[in-house]
């Protein structure tokens, strides 16, 4: 079994920079407009389940109504990092992936304190002042200091092995 245990999001809608630890079961609870749906939309985007395209309207806007820009004045990209760890049938983290998942993740498995993980980054870069986007995915070998290189790209064919189920927001439960 596997578990998405951490998600890090930068510059996406209302989320300027956030890292969320997830458990076997995670409930997102909070006030309206706190970012719960945005968090789920980010995961949908990463795993390719969303039917809507990302555009410049999805960029974080600061309190002055501006998008974040780098030193060259270009729009900062949306970055969504996901970390997956091996767990046993009780949802307890174990040291290494079983043979099935080890085969799926292959040489992109990272090691942290002798515990294996698979982490990847989805980076959505805005071209032409936001009119076009370029999406790239990289594996991350160091979760705490991610610095993916252009040759760290991987095929998202990995995602066909990962089943995710998203529930729409439930109000007044």
Task: Report on this structure.
The chain is mostly beta strands and 173 residues long. 11% of the residues lie in helices and 30% in strands. The protein has 2 helices and 6 strands. The protein has helices at residues 36-47, 99-105, and strands at residues 2-12, 15-21, 78-86, 110-112, 115-127, 132-140. Strand 5 (115-127) and strand 6 form a beta hairpin. The two termini are 30 Å apart.
Summarize this structure as a short list of keywords or feature phrases.
single chain, 173 residues, mainly beta, 6 strands
The count of DSSP E runs of length 2 or more, i.e. the number of strands, is 6
Question: What composes the largest sheet?
Answer: 6 strands, antiparallel
Helix content: 10-25%
N-to-C order of helices and strands = EEHEHEEE
Distance between the termini: 30 Å
Count of separate DSSP helical elements: 2
Q: How is the topology of this model organized?
A:
Elements: E1 2-12, E2 15-21, H1 36-47, E3 78-86, H2 99-105, E4 110-112, E5 115-127, E6 132-140
Antiparallel strand pairs: 1-2, 1-3, 3-5, 4-5, 5-6
